[in-house]
């Protein structure tokens, strides 16, 4: 396990800051320490990234960068099991989910290797103009130095979603992982180091948001800020970016609705609803945490949801058969139990869960909870819990379901389930969210755009949209006529 900062192709100790504890959420014990980077370290990292950009990386071909990305993917793949186990220890999630994440992260590097190659073909494409005296070509050029700040819920996967497209575009990177889960980002740096990625192309600065994240957002040498995290931090980052007119993309929170109509298959609904809210302990930005159920199916569906939720096995992520691990931290544990208390105080009916499981004396474990009919204006219905808490409300008509789903300041995702595919298409088209799942919830593909409307963010990651986050578009327009332009030379 690494504990230093990775700057300019070297492992270095923090300039002024000390070291931060890394805690295993299943035991609440400190098992490692990592460098607490500060403004000085961020400055070294940004300067290194700028030199790497100016001195070569920004001028490489897409085909060259594709080879580096594939080498990185191979290197991660060779340590896939160890990385998965490290993710479990750092984050708490069950091992099969960590394996899934690491596999997806590797796939993300391979996918963007493909897009880097395609970029060479797309370079200098002619653009037809309505005036024959001119010829125009379009270039896609790397944006420069990207500052990337990520959360703790999918530590390596969130790093991959940002680092892979940036490197594919020819941009260099300073990555600031979450202080709660810094370890696999450092392993990504170690993989880059082993394959000999040129110094400064990828820098990883661990540390607290205020001490390492904030200086990154304010550094004048950063051209692009890419952030995934909470809405309040996103707003701060947007203000910092505004001072310097930095390019920005934000992936923020959500409170996504799952609409189930009377004609849906009850058992299929149970499966997708539970997965949609309880995988990764509900610490999922796109979690479908607001369940809207049509009156006719509600009694049977809610009964089955409660029955199955009570069977979910909770325990340390390394234990075979466990579906729900601990929450990531004491702070997150207190926050989720606080939401449960507020829900009870507001008069919502707790149908199951919402407590520490009796058999687990240590670790940040919370039983998956279902609340029935929280008030429209209750905090539980409106705000993101980011934990294993499902809220259920009933509706009568399609129009009412759409209205209730859209009555949120968030707009990241939504799901709709019905046997009537014309209806699901109608509803999907009316939902104000960046992602709509039909007859399922949560499946995520690296090819498809990811991101939200309203307070859920600005811009899209993944797919070609993710690549274009790190590219500038340039037109080169040439006057090809042998006649004078004729403004004053008549
Ligand atoms: P957070 O905002 O507390 O922290 C995210 C990152 O920002 C961390 O690395 C943190 O150190 C850093 N940070 C904190 N303060 C900062 C500051 N002032 N300046 C710069 N950086 C700062 O969020 P979190 O608790 O780590 O993550 C949970 C949130 O992330 C949830 O709201 C969730 O919905 C969201 N999220 C969104 C997506 C998405 O794709 N839309 C994906 C995952 C998580």
Automatic annotation (TrEMBL):
Gene3D superfamilies: Aldehyde Dehydrogenase, Chain A, domain 1, Aldehyde Dehydrogenase, Chain A, domain 2. One of its GO terms (molecular function) is oxidoreductase activity, acting on the aldehyde or oxo group of donors, NAD or NADP as acceptor. The active site is at residue 251. The keyword RNA-binding does not apply. Pfam families: Aldedh (PF00171). Residues 11-476 form the Aldehyde dehydrogenase domain. Pathway: Amine and polyamine biosynthesis; betaine biosynthesis via choline pathway; betaine from betaine aldehyde: step 1/1. The keyword DNA repair does not apply. It comes from the Bacteria. SUPFAM superfamilies: ALDH-like (SSF53720). Keywords: NAD, Oxidoreductase. Belongs to the aldehyde dehydrogenase family. This is Aldehyde dehydrogenase family protein. It comes from Pseudomonas vancouverensis.
């Amino acid at each position: 396990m690494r504990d230093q900062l990775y700057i300019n192709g070297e492992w270095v100790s923090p300039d002024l800051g000390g070291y931060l504890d890394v805690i295993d959420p299943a035991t609440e014990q400190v098992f490692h320490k990592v460098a607490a980077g500060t403004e000085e370290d961020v400055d070294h990292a940004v300067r290194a990234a700028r030199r790497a950009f100016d001195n070569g990386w920004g001028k490489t071909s897409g085909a060259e960068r594709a080879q580096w990305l594939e080498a990185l993917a191979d290197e991660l793949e060779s340590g896939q099991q160890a990385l998965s186990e490290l993710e479990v220890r750092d984050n708490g999630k069950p091992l099969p989910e960590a394996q899934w994440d690491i596999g997806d992260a590797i796939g993300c590097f391979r996918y963007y290797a493909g897009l880097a190659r395609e970029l060479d073909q797309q370079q200098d494409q002619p653009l037809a103009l309505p005036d024959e005296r001119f010829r125009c070509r379009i270039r896609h050029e790397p944006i420069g130095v990207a500052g990337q700040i990520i959360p703790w819920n999918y530590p390596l996967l969130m790093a991959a979603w940002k680092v892979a497209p940036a490197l594919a575009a020819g941009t260099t990177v300073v990555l600031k992982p979450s202080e709660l889960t810094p370890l696999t980002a450092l392993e990504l740096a170690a993989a880059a180091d082993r394959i000999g990625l040129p110094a400064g192309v990828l820098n990883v600065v661990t540390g607290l948001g205020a001490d390492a994240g904030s200086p990154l957002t304010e550094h004048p040498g950063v051209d692009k800020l890419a952030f995934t995290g909470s809405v309040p931090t996103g707003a701060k980052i947007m203000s910092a970016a505004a001072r310097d007119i930095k390019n920005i993309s934000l992936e923020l929170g959500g409170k996504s609705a799952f609409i189930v109509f009377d004609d849906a298959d009850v058992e299929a609904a149970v499966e997708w609803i539970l997965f949609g809210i309880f995988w990764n302990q509900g610490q999922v930005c796109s979690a479908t945490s607001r369940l809207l159920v049509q009156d006719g199916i509600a009694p049977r569906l809610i009964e089955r949801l409660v029955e199955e939720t009570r069977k979910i096995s909770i325990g340390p992520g390394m234990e075979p058969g466990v579906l729900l691990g601990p929450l990531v931290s004491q702070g997150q544990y207190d926050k989720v139990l606080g939401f449960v208390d507020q829900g009870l105080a507001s008069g919502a009916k707790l149908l199951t869960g919402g407590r520490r499981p009796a058999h687990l004396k240590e670790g940040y474990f919370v039983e998956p909870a279902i609340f029935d009919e929280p008030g429209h204006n209750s905090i539980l219905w409106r705000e993101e819990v980011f934990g294993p808490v499902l809220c259920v409300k009933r509706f009568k008509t399609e129009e009412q379901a759409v209205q209730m789903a859209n009555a949120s300041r968030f707009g990241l995702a939504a799901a709709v389930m019905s046997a009537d595919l014309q209806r699901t298409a109608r509803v999907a088209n009316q939902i104000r969210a960046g992602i709509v799942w039909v007859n399922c919830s949560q499946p995520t593909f690296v090819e498809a755009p990811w991101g939200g409307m309203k307070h859920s963010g600005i811009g899209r990651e993944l797919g070609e949209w993710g690549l274009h986050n790190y590219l500038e578009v340039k037109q080169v327009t040439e006057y090809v006529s042998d006649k004078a332009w004729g403004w004053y030379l008549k």
